[in-house]
């Protein structure tokens, strides 16, 4: 008899359980780390943003007297309208869903939701102004702009700044800790641990500034971007000016020339920048993982949390960095798809962008999850300067660069007997280890001037780090 599997009728189905079982790890296992994004990038957040845009549009039209013959609003009426999105919670979400089951249209359901709240108030006679002259995309593009701005600037960017500051602090603390470099994975000119981590901090700082400066565009210009309904209804109003001032009122940059949709180029630019920052973080995660494997960092189990290996009790696995790697790869792939897809629409409108944009949450969510894991991982590291010193002591051949560079300099200055410096050091060092005594003996036999001989004899792999500690002065903060 074959073994029963979870897909067989003998097993209980999870699909209809209440509360619903999460399908994705972001809404299940990892929800605590990404929960702040729910206020910005969930379906409920989308509908709340739509309520903001619809109610502010009504306020804007009446306050600017865009439609002649209509009165302006009182302070109480403006407060009533702004309370609609502010009070949108569990009951409102359920009510909107109920309306949408009838309309089979989420934006129309938002319009009807607002009109219900105007019923019986002083604004009931003006209820038809809700959504007037608007196509759904007028509301949606502005709503997504508000949502994405909030998610990036209020949640994701602060997290990126935090981990960058964390990297910067570790870099400064380790500014003078010498470390063997590994170019192509092979022993190379020494550096300091702080300088190498500072490279990541500097790279991330550039991306932060780019993302802070990214424009977030919006439009409200009708079914094909021509203001046709506006112009035929109220020809005397400067509808471009009304549109511009409304978009800017929302804190966005006005896009004056669109089809039915706002072209989403700004989204593609932003997602590419976020993905690039994620790839720099991915590079950090893989490098730190390698430094841990080399013994340059020790991990504190208390900071990593939980069991290390399920079978090897001595191990403290670098799970935070591995988790960050994987989630940054998922995030980067999603962000790439978003950036590639959103810049194209068929003629004046199709709906590919509608379903695509609903995946902004997972894309940013996986990135945020990775950042949180990097923060925890970095917080659990201790620098092992002794391990790095031992590694340097075992690789005196890396001074070959220093010796041949001094020989070259003296040679071009006319000092005799220092020909073929590169080739002589290559014969001494390539593919073989050289200890301190061997390197010093080679230097003694070169016939160098006293100053250069003494300088090279005093040099060790641990002191051959150039300006590495001073370079961290280029970091901000």
Q: What do you see in this structure?
A:
- Keywords: Lyase, Purine biosynthesis.
- Pfam families: ASL_C (PF08328), Lyase_1 (PF00206).
- InterPro entries: Fumarase/histidase_N, Fumarate_lyase_CS, Fumarate_lyase_fam, Fumarate_lyase_N, L-Aspartase-like, PurB_bact, PurB_C.
- This is Adenylosuccinate lyase.
- It comes from Brachybacterium equifaecis.
- This protein is mainly α.
- The chain folds into three domains: 38-134, Fumarase/aspartase (N-terminal domain) (Fumarase C, Chain B, domain 1); 137-385, Fumarase/aspartase (Central domain) (Fumarase C, Chain A, domain 2, Up-down Bundle); 396-458, Fumarase/aspartase (C-terminal domain) (Ribonucleotide Reductase Protein R1, domain 1).
- Helix content is 58%, strand content 5%.
- The chain has 20 helices and six strands.
- It has helices at residues 31-34, 38-41, 43-63, 75-86, 90-103, 106-118, 136-173, 193-213, 228-233, 239-249, 265-294, 301-304, 319-341, 352-357, 360-379, 385-393, 400-412, 421-429, 436-444, 450-458; strands spanning 178-183, 186-192, 217-218, 253-254, 297-299, 381-383.
- The chain is elongated, with a radius of gyration of 31 Å.
- It starts with 30 loop residues before the first helix and ends in a 19-residue tail after the last helix.
- The model has no long low-confidence stretch (mean pLDDT 93).
